[in-house]
Amino acid sequence: MFKSINPATGEAFAEHSEHSAHEVEARIAKAAETYRHWRTTSYDERTALLAKIADAFEGDTQRLAEMATREMGKTLKSAVAEVEKCVSGFRYYAEHGPALLADTEIEMASGRAVARWLPMGVVLAIMPWNFPYWQVVRFLAPAIMAGNVGLLKHASLTQGCAQLIEEMVAKAGAPEGLFQNLAIPSSKVEPVLADPRIVAVTLTGSEGAGIKVAEAAGRELKKVVLELGGSDPFIVMPSADVAKAAEVAVTARTQNAGQSCICAKRMIVHADVYDDFVAGFEKGMRELAIGDPMAEGTAMGPLSSEEARGTVLEQVEEATREGARLLVGAEKIDQPGAWMSAGVLVDVPPEGKFAKEEIFGPVAMVFKAEDIDAAIRLANDVPFGLGSSVWTNDPQEQERFARDIEAGMTAVNAMLASVPEAPFGGVKRSGHGRELGPWGLHEFMNLKAVMLPKSDKSGPAGD
After folding, report:
1. Which is deepest, 1, 233, 277, 385, by most CB within 10 Å?
2. End-to-end CA distance of the chain
3. SS3 assignment, position 336
4. Which residue ranges are recorded for the region named Disordered (predicted)?
5. 260/197 same-domain check
6. How does DSSP classify residue 346?
7. Sign (positive/negative) of CA torsion 284, 285, 290, 294?
8. Cβ(440)–Cβ(100) under 8 Å?
């Protein structure tokens, strides 16, 4: 049994039954059966369905958003924005999908060939609670366009959101079995992954979860995409608008209560502007509006659970033991629920254990860099390589950061965010593979070479 617990109050408001082994088998069987038909559908059929799913999400935005806020604590405003992003994701693939899957003609001395994108089968998605809709849509929209079928193992915290996604897809008229939620705990994922009817797996989650899934997928020789943790640098150089950078840094560190893989977690600031940045950043973090996530003016709600808050507070204690200084916040707020204040740590020893960790909560580490070389060294001196944000108006510095920061993504003079059109993913221990854009569409597809006689000018019929 899964419980939906409102982290703003600590009270359970719903229960969800776990699927039995028989129910899981029935859902896998239905997915495999549906794939045999769905793989043969035209691009027009797929894009029409994607557009209808987008309409379903758009028409139920408020209900979807309120469920996310109640289950994991994000502000209602940010939950609405998440649903709106899902709508844009479905519509992106509905509009651009056919062109992204067009055949590529290959001329050869011995004849010619066509490179064609074909679906693979049933894809298992293991998704987290922090963006309970958008994380799923990042896999689901391209899966539908590709001609694949999806099974979702969602986080235990957000089973209400999982059920609503299933409802939206069904409401749009999708074939039964095209998308189904598996209400199972993490301990029961491995047998599902091993099932021969599952052809690939995508996971967004912790480094530990990624290792387990990659090992299991490797034993079965199945394709896997991993989007794991990050400790993203937010670098500020003297040529930047420092006041603006400090203002954006507050949002970049505390969006979703700091519970985002691409939150800016390490502020790396040039010595010449360090004091000005820290003053502005500290003020913004101190004045952050923390409160009822349903209220209009709230900037940050609670963390997702008391357990998550406990982990962050333990990390802050570890940092201070290593020599870091707590400048502001990072304290438990004494009321029911998973509340804490936003915090800033300075004088963090770069060589310490804590400096290499990811803090999945609203606490920032601030480092001072003497020059661009030192900033890049600090940025890369962690096991992760997901995203990064750099603030400089010097074109040469912008190019240097883009080239030398070890990350899958770099935003210049802006907070990093995912968008449907651009590739999303990391390097190092932040995972491998890409979501979104044409790259996310192609990850779980068979790129088939169709060899044709040189005299044959017609070739196989494209979609």
Report:
1. 233
2. 45
3. coil
4. 1-20
5. no
6. E
7. positive
8. no
Token pair recorded at residue 138 = 């990042």
Q: Identify whether 261 is a catalytic site residue.
A: yes
Paired tokens of 28: 């896998």
Do the Cβ atoms of 460 and 118 come closer than 8 Å? no
* pLDDT of 373 above 60: yes
| pLDDT at residue 266 greater than cutoff 80 | yes
Q: Which of the residues 261, 358, 397, 443 is marked catalytic?
A: 261
Dist CA 358 CA 356 (whole Å): 7
What is the arithmetic mean of pLDDT over 417-436?
A: 98
Residues 242, 154 within the same domain: no
Total-model pTM = 0.95
Contacts of 453 (CB under 8 A, 6+ apart): 111
d(CA 383, CA 463): 44
The band of 455, judged by pLDDT with boundaries at 50, 70 and 90, is low
User: Which of the residues 227, 306, 357, 435 is marked catalytic?
Assistant: 227
Q: What is the CA radius of gyration of the chain?
A: 23
User: CATH code at 147?
Assistant: 3.40.605.10
- What average pLDDT score do residues 22-31 get? 98
Q: Does 458 fall in a domain?
A: no
Tokens 């992003």 sit on residue: 85
Burial-class residue 107 by CB neighbours within 10 Å (0-12, 13-18, 19+): exposed
Hunting for tokens 């982290």 — which residue is that? 7
Please report whether residue 20 resides in a domain: yes
Predicted pLDDT at 111: 84
